[in-house]
Amino acid sequence: xxxxxxxxxxxxxxxxxxxxxxxxxxxxxxxxxxxx
Length: 36
What we know:
- The protein has 36 residues and is an all-alpha fold.
- Helix content is 92%, strand content 0%.
- The longest helix has 33 residues, at 3-35.
- The protein starts with a helix and ends with a helix.
């Protein structure tokens, strides 16, 4: 496996995690912003 493939795989995993994190926390954060 080349270094480039390894980097792509890592960035894909990170993007997937980031997406999950955003889906979980964005609604709570937005709610605070709306009521603030």
